[in-house]
Amino acid sequence: QVRLVESGGGSVQAGGSLRLSCTAPGFTSSKCIMNWYRQAAGKQREWVSSITTSGVPNYAPSVKGRFTIAHDKASDTVFLEMSSLKPEDTAMYYCKTGGLYVCTTTSWGQGTQVTVSS
């Protein structure tokens, strides 16, 4: 089972920016819907953003206008560009493939931690 690999997290001050990346080694994600989720300490995992195979992005209301998702099919990498970060964006961020059945068979990765200080 292919495990997704997230990277790019870190610690920033409020108002700062980060760019997260996600790859699926050995797996072609070009036909998958790509999703980002996050889980803050003590809370349930929540959906943040997705991008369809035709490049249509969707965002949770809490991040719309601040986050941008992109899928580079040539490198099989999905990015989440985060700007105007807020302390409430602090969480472990995960990516996940979805859509076609084969896209649902990937495993959650270890995530990448984003910490935003006020």
Mind explaining what this structure looks like?
With 118 residues, this protein is mostly beta strands. The protein is built from no helices and 10 strands. A 6-stranded mixed β-sheet has the order 2-10-9-4-5-6, with no helix packed on it. It is globular, with a radius of gyration of 13 Å. It starts with a strand and ends with a strand.
Short description:
The protein is 0% helix and 47% strand.
Structural class: mainly beta
* Low-pLDDT residue intervals, each spanning 5 or more residues: none
Mean pLDDT across the residues is 95
As a percent range, the share of helical residues equals under 10%
Strand order of the largest sheet: 2-10-9-4-5-6
H and E order? EEEEEEEEEE
Please work out how many helical segments DSSP would assign: 0
Sum up the overall morphology in one term. globular
Distance separating the two termini: 39 Å
The percent range for strand residues is over 45%
Report Rg.
Answer: 13 Å
Number of strands: 10
Report the major sheet: 6 strands, mixed
